[in-house]
Amino acid sequence: MKGTFVILTATLSAAMFAYAEENVASDEYDYIALPQINQVADLEDDDNDGVINARDLCPDTPSLSEIDNDGCGTFVKTSKLQSLHILFANDSSDIPPVFVSQIRQMAEFLNTYPSASIEIKGYASKVGSEEYNLNLSKRRSEAVEAQLLRYGVERNRVRIVGFGDTELASHGDTQVAHALNRRVTATVVGYKGAIVKEWSIFTALPK
User: Fold this and answer.
1) Residue of 84, 103, 114, 140 with fewest CB within 10 Å of its CB?
2) Do residues 120 and 166 share a domain?
3) Residue 118: in which H helix or E strand, if any?
4) What pTM does this model have?
5) Tens place of pLDDT for every residue, the chain, 207 residues?
6) Domain span including residue 49
7) Are strands 183-189 and 117-122 parallel, antiparallel or unpaired?
């Protein structure tokens, strides 16, 4: 009886081993590779706002903006700098140092709102010929443009024009009037307003 039990145990073990080997072999031959999936939609998020490019209707949203499901921010009115007014010395296109910080602030503003651009207008006083004053006004516009570019503003977002002495801020024939006419003004184009920032630990609650 004991011998019969040993034989049965050995037979059962051999059968189980053979079954296991058969299943392993079967698993090896029955393996089917998963099909390759071609991704069509753009799953990248270039402006890092949490909305993929394929769904993002506002691809240039500033960092940390509070956005909707389309990746667009909420705009509100702001008192931030949106214009420039720079005065020049007689017969000069050199930017006086006192106005450099104003240009830097404008560059920071434009870099914060990449959808906005700027139009720079140069002027001259009545002193000198019309042709000379026209060229001088253009050089003044170009000087301001060059300063903005140094601060990282892209050239295709800047438009310059010179008016010479055709559009005077002051029509008097005095030193003060001439000084007021030697100028560059600039206005922001395409600015919708400040974008509401999302909450963070640094967000200040209204009082």
Assistant:
1) 114
2) yes
3) strand 117-122
4) 0.59
5) 544 544 545 555 555 555 555 555 445 555 666 666 666 556 776 666 667 777 666 766 666 566 666 667 665 555 455 789 999 999 999 999 999 999 999 999 899 888 889 999 999 999 999 999 999 999 999 999 999 999 999 999 999 999 999 999 999 899 999 999 999 999 998 776 555 555 544 445 444
6) 44-74
7) antiparallel
Residue 103 and residue 109: Cα distance in Å, rounded?
10
| Beta strands 117-122 and 83-87, pairing class | unpaired
Checking phi first, is residue 190 left (phi over 0); if not, alpha (psi -120 to 50) or beta? left
Taking CA atoms, 138 is separated from 3, 48, 122, in Å, by 113, 39, 6
Position 154 in a domain: yes
**DSSP state string for 26-94:** HHHHH--PPPPP---S----TT-SSS-TTT-S-TTPPTTB-B-TTS-BPEE---S--EEEEE--TT--P
* CA atoms of 90 and 27, how far apart (whole Å): 90
The verdict on 189 and 87 lying in the same domain is yes
